[in-house]
Structure prediction request, 972 residues.
Amino acid sequence: MFIALKNATKKYGEGESLVYALDHTSLEIEKGEICVILGPSGSGKSTMLNMLGGLDHLDEGEIIVGERNLSGYRSKKLTEYRKEDVGFVFQFYNLIPDLTVEENIQVVSDIAENPLDITEVLEAMGMEKYRYRFPRELSGGQQQRVAIARAIIKNPKLLLCDELTGALDTKSSKTVLEFIEKINQLYHTTTVIITHNEAIAQMADRVIYIKDGKVQENRLNEQKRPAGELEL
Amino acid sequence: MTLNKRYSRSIKSNLSFYVSTTILTVMTLVLVFIMYMGGKAIWEFGDKFFVRQNLEDAEFETYLPISAEAENELEKEFGVTIEAQYYNNIETKGTTARVFKKTHEINLYSITEGKDITANDEVILSEGYAVFNEITIGDTIQIGEKVYTVTGFFQRPDYLYMLQNEGDAYKNVTTFFLAYVTDEEFEEIGSENCLYLVRYGEGDSGEFRKAVNERYYMSSYLTAQENMRIDMVKMQADLMVYMAYGLLVVMPLIVVVLVSIVINRKVKSEQKLIGTLTALGYKKRKLMLHYAGFAMIPGLLGGLLGVGLSLVFAQSFGELCLMDYEPMRIECHMNPVMALVSILLPTFMYVLAAMHSVNKLLKKDTVLLLSSNADQGKKSYRNLLRKKKISFRIKYALRSLIGNPGRSFVVLLGIFLGSFIALLGFGLMDTMENTQINMVDEMGSYEYQYVLKERIEGSEYGGEPLILFVMEDTSGEQFQMIGTEDTNPYLDLKDVDGNSVHLKDGYYITSVMAKLRNLEAGDKMMLCNPLTMEETEITVSGIIDNDMQNAVFTNRARVAKLLGIDESISNVIMSDVSLEIPEKKLMQTIKKSDAKEQFQNMTNQMNTMIYFIIGMGAVICVASIYVAVNMLVAENRANISMLKVLGYDDKNINQIVLRINHILVPIGFLLGIPAVFALSNWFMMLLAGFIGMLPKTYIAPESLLYTAVLIGISYFGSLFLLRRKVSKVDMVESLKGNRE
Prediction:
């Protein structure tokens, strides 16, 4: 077991406006899996990603990632966890606009203990020829590939993707997902993709469906399809 | 408008911005206002007091006495008013009392406390001395052999600055005072001295002076404008008002620009909200008014507080600046129009900045506004170091610096402003101190300068005799005419290029005189003998490097010819040792060390003002730098948040984000230096017009160090405070709005 959520609870608000973003949720994900978490808006998907990524704290329960139990972690340890173990890919790329493609990746490689070779990663992402471009000189799909490159440069144990195709057209989405698949195969990175696009679930090893902060379904995907064949 | 409910909430969440911009506005206004109000109050007091007490236009002495009948005749003939002023200097236990006989038409005294004298054993004293020596009404005081009862204190319009001797540089209220006794008592004491006071009214001063000299032989003539006892008051007021004008040009302008840019950027940071409100149907006018409201807060609040605090402090500040004068009852008040302008102008500028910003944003596509991308201009700066193999941190800092010119400019301006004010204060003090140290060397290597009552022939007392006379130019401004020889061992006269000058070759003016009168070698200049009113045109042969004396140097023969005296006659002796000259032959003995001390005392007058400037400068410095660097975190929230997500700790983030502006600190500081030199030089030229000396602007290395430390503390202190803000940036929330 690589990831385990045990009775994870996260509340927002108080009194009548109290909302359970995660309501005593438990789940498990195996190492090296591509796991797609599905659910409607407000279901708790992003909260779950924030917890897995060490961006926020649980109110109750436990999160275990690899050998780390994040529940007892304070800010400093969470920073260390993010630095060493987690790569993030966001819907809106979140690249630093004043830095080139190469420099955006350097931001992470600079603090990583055993970073991968930038050129190698850029080549893997098909972005080598754009290494001196600035984010706004690239298309959305290209920017997302840079974001993926930035996420994997540290060779993370866990890759977290939050609606990574949400801002892309179908063609670009497919390309980006192919790269995620490629990364998973190349580096055996456990990958969690949060999306409301059910079609993406077809490329997953595991599909988790959540609603109102609770896991409705956690199943292995028996009919896994390559990303290039998805009908998005 | 419901939207306006944001005001109070926004103030709460942006309290530091509103506090610091308000402080900046307040301090700037207070600094300018109290200088201006204090100076104006002194002007007004002087003007009223001088008119009410019939201040003289000039005073003179003659070799032959002018009888009362002759006075009447002169008055009728020239349409002037003359009055003899009899007085006696009485030494008592180390203290000198200058006892006057009452005048009835000119230089009338004003009782400031107590009552006038009515009996022969009563006396009234100059107030400054009484205050300093804690003499109260009813006390007795010994003058000469007699003891008098003090019935009151007074002020004379020609002794508001209490100089014992005309040539003194600093007041004496410790061992010197003025006194009046009854006429009967004065007759008893007997008068030893007499000078004549004159008010010209519509009369012709030139013809009058000529006639007096022809008939009674003038031995001295001093106009009120050249009389330091009178003119120092005007000088003090002028210094304050001109300093206010000088600061007015620099300070509010910079602060208004600084705050306006900050407001402009604040508005831009709300482009998403502006886009949302536009999408919701809000019209441009409503949005502009809404943001105008935000900008109005620091403007109105700062203006009102600035005016209010100025009203509170101007009086005390004005009185503080007048510590060296006879106690003057000044009344500081504010011109309502000026107050209104001070409140409205910053407000107007800030509102204009906000409205302009909103207007500019609203010209952009709403979709761009919604995605916070409306502010993307041409970003060619990004090409900087694009392919260079250096740390991304340096590239990030440089591109942030160049790519945000408004923000960088504000930081630079804040540091410049802080450095400028602090250096101005320190620089003024250094300049005066440096002048005091070097002044004597420029004047000559003598230690004693004896001014004789009578002219002498040869050098019967030893030392180096020379001719020194006060002359006037065509505008009536006085300067020294010095006749000596190249062999004078105490003078090493050199021109501005360092070459020795030869007095036999012609007339040489000092560099301060050349600057004040805008003269160069070869220029013509009209001289006027103030006693005979004879005019002579001279040609300037060269400029002597001497900013300490407003004087013309030439050889004895020329001066003698100008004055119509024999070449062998002298009236001043220079010496490096004390000479045995009978007391009754001496008009004045000037010791170089005393002159130095007096100059030091005179500069102390300015110190109150200077310390005040430094204090205010420190506050303005901290506030402006805080406002400026505060923008760093506000405008880098998304990047800070991203770096946190990527695993950067706060220390690392601080190193990347907060050091962006480091390079601007030395630049802003260095820019402050020439600016201080420019303002100080202008100020010193003004001062030279009053005192005939032109102090060279000088900033001591220690002052540069102190200012650098002050700026460093302000800057790094502000960054230290900002570290808290960096640690508060929320990873989750700020990522939601981050799009390229």
Observations:
- DSSP finds six helices and ten strands in chain A.
- Chain A has one domain: 3-229.
- Residues 3-229 of chain A form a domain with the Rossmann fold fold (CATH 3.40.50.300).
